């Protein structure tokens, strides 16, 4: 039984199809959780750790690209840590003042389309490329399966964080 009316109803033994469907689901869930929030709500932190909803969204956009494009494919990407202040992966998340919800949701879905291309053309046992995110240091890069699980858990965890923030912001709950 689906957890919600929008949870994938894909009943397939194909793990690549399941990953694609659930990544799409969580991207959509994240976008839905932010719909209807005011600009002030999107840019204001309500949690002690200090992140605002738009900052979480930019993190998810960059996170998916870091793992699938820069990591798995090994392609060079502009500003891979652009979701962090000063490009420092340990720094706080940031969103430029001229970047809004619409642009970030578009970027989220564009990244999803790129991920679906990767999943449609690669095997889960294939390892990420050396030269992008992963150095040639003798440690093999992770498999596509590992990357899929990692990205899926990031989406699930952060969608839950957005549930809480949305409820704190205006009382809205749900999918």
UniProtKB/TrEMBL annotation:
<dbReference type="Pfam" id="PF04978">
    <property type="entry name" value="MST"/>
</dbReference>
<dbReference type="InterPro" id="IPR007061">
    <property type="entry name" value="MST-like"/>
</dbReference>
<protein>
    <submittedName>
        <fullName>Mini-circle uncharacterized 19.1 kDa protein</fullName>
    </submittedName>
</protein>
<dbReference type="InterPro" id="IPR034660">
    <property type="entry name" value="DinB/YfiT-like"/>
</dbReference>
């Amino acid at each position: 039984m689906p957890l919600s009316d929008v949870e994938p109803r894909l009943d397939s033994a194909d793990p690549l199809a399941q990953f694609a469907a659930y990544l799409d689901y969580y991207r959509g869930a994240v976008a839905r959780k932010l719909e209807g929030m005011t600009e002030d709500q999107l840019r204001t932190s309500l949690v002690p750790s200090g992140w605002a909803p738009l900052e979480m969204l930019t993190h998810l956009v960059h996170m998916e690209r870091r793992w699938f494009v820069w990591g798995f494919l090994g392609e060079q990407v502009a500003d891979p840590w652009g979701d962090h202040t000063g490009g420092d992966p340990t720094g706080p998340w940031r969103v430029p003042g001229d970047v809004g919800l619409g642009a970030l949701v578009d970027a989220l879905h564009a990244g999803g389309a790129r991920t679906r291309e990767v999943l449609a053309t690669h095997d889960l046992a294939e390892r990420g490329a050396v030269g992008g995110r992963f150095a040639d240091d003798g440690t093999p890069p992770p498999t596509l399966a590992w990357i899929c699980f990692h990205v899926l858990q990031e989406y699930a965890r952060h969608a839950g964080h957005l549930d809480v923030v949305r409820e704190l912001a205006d009382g809205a709950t749900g999918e």
